[in-house]
């Protein structure tokens, strides 16, 4: 079941089997929601917010509403935080949570394989993010080069935002129902 991140609209229905019993709109009312499931969703929300902040800042820079000297340290701080935290999050998932979760429901094995491939694909997108951000930051003293670099960074950021949102949504729809059904005790918590 090859479902590349860059072309996937959603996980296949066969992998969303638990979502029928645990639909997203009922998650917060479930007694097993508070704890690991809500923490997972909060973590994902923080990645989405960081991307949104960097996108808004890049747009403000390109529209000349944000001074390049104010933009540069903010991008460095937010971008570094984003990349470091996302790598750490994926590492914990790959090494700890995914192996435990895949044991909880054999029907989801292919879903976790897809998420694992997503992590590898996202590494490439994160590398491009870092390269584009660094190129724009190196061009601070040349307005034309900065506009070109910031435009390239913004375009890449939009792509990354879409890919990451697809991955996070799919991950949530695979993982949260398992946590709600089995409780976090099933995952060693």
UniProtKB/TrEMBL annotation:
One Pfam family hit: Hemerythrin
Organism per entry: uncultured Rubellimicrobium sp
Taxonomic path: Bacteria, Pseudomonadati, Pseudomonadota, Alphaproteobacteria, Rhodobacterales
Domain Hemerythrin-like residues, every copy: 38-178
InterPro entries according to UniProt: Hemerythrin-like
Protein name as annotated: Hemerythrin-like domain-containing protein
């Amino acid at each position: 079941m090859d479902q590349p991140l860059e072309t996937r609209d959603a996980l296949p229905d066969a992998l969303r089997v638990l979502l029928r019993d645990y639909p997203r709109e009922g998650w917060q009312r479930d007694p097993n929601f508070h704890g690991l499931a809500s923490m997972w969703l909060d973590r994902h929300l923080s990645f989405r917010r960081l991307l949104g902040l960097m996108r808004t800042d890049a747009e403000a820079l390109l529209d000349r509403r944000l001074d390049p000297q104010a933009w540069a340290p903010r991008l460095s701080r937010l971008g570094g935080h984003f990349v470091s935290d996302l790598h750490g999050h994926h590492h914990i998932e790959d090494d700890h949570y995914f192996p435990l979760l895949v044991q909880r429901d054999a029907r989801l094995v292919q879903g976790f394989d897809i998420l694992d491939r997503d992590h590898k694909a996202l590494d490439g997108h994160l590398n491009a993010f870092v390269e584009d951000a660094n190129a724009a930051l190196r061009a601070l003293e040349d307005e034309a080069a900065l506009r070109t670099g910031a435009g390239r960074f913004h375009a890449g950021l939009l792509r990354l935002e879409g890919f990451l949102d697809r991955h996070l949504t799919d991950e949530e729809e695979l993982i949260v129902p398992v946590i709600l059904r089995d409780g976090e005790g099933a995952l060693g918590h």
